[in-house]
Amino acid sequence: MKLARNAAVAVFLLGLALLVVGAACSSSGASDDTAPAAPSPSAEPTLAATSTPTPRPTPTATPTPFAGKVARLQIPRFGVDAPIEELGVDSTNTLETPKAENTAVGWYSIYDRPGWGGNAIFSAHVYYHSKPAPFVNLAKSQPGDIVLVVMEDGTTYKYEVFSNKRYHRDTIPMGEIIEAPEKADYDEWITLITCGGELDATGLEYLSRDVVVAKRIWE
């Protein structure tokens, strides 16, 4: 869950105190039988006024992201406005698929949360029982497409697609896709995963997986 993380930097100036010494010494005349007059003592040193340091600016606090439920995922270009179903992994350590097959988008709550600077993972079907599902058009995504994640309190996070790749189902690097090692710490991503390509010999399973990645736009 890599939020922009900017540290406030405070700079201040310190005035230099200057030491000014007055050397006013005077002597009076004296005869042979009188002791010479003692010289007048030197004036006490005085300190020049110092400049007042510029106060440190108060850092602006970063609002805490919403920690409640993820409500909806929207892809305006394709008319997607789907409710979110929280998912995890099954007993075989395989990512679960949405149970509301034709309507919901799954969010894997075991991984990063939207709004917290990480890489939130979503999935949905393309078809289920021959009916279109939320990600039926995901493979057509192009750089610049907008994806919106709406939280339960109405907070909306905006993301822009920058990557669309297809992987074979047997060699898809799920670890790298989830961990996103190439993501900069100051970026926030969402990754959308669905089935794609041709059907296998059974006619029931797709041979490939389409993976679309979008980066958060800060407004």
Structural write-up:
The protein has 219 residues and is mainly β. The protein has a domain at 70-216: Beta Barrel (Sortase, Chain: A), CATH 2.40.260. The chain contains one helix and twelve strands. It has one helix at 174-179; strands at residues 19-20, 46-47, 70-75, 80-87, 105-108, 119-123, 127-128, 131-132, 146-151, 156-168, 189-199, 206-216. An eight-stranded mixed barrel has the order 3-4-5-6-11-12-10-9. A hairpin with a 6-residue loop joins strand 11 and strand 12 (206-216). The chain is globular, with a radius of gyration of 35 Å. The model is unreliable at 1-50 (pLDDT under 50).
Q: What would the keywords be for this entry?
A:
219 residues; mainly beta; Sortase, Chain: A; 8-stranded mixed barrel; 1 helix; 33% strand; globular
- End-to-end CA span: 20 Å
> Could you say what the CATH topology of one domain is called?
Sortase, Chain: A
Mean pLDDT reading:
79
Proportion of strand residues? 25-35%
Structural class: mainly beta
User: Count of helices?
Assistant: 1
Strand arrangement within the widest β-sheet reads: 3-4-5-6-11-12-10-9
Our Rg estimate from Cα atoms comes to: 35 Å
Q: Briefly, what CATH class of one domain?
A: Mainly Beta
- Strand segment count: 12
> What would you call the shape?
globular
Proportion in helices: under 10%
CATH A-level architecture of one domain: Beta Barrel
Could you give me the name of the CATH homologous superfamily of one domain? Answer: Sortase
SSE order: EEEEEEEEEEHEE
Give the uncertain stretches in residue-range form.
Answer: 1-50
* Main sheet record: 8 strands, mixed, barrel
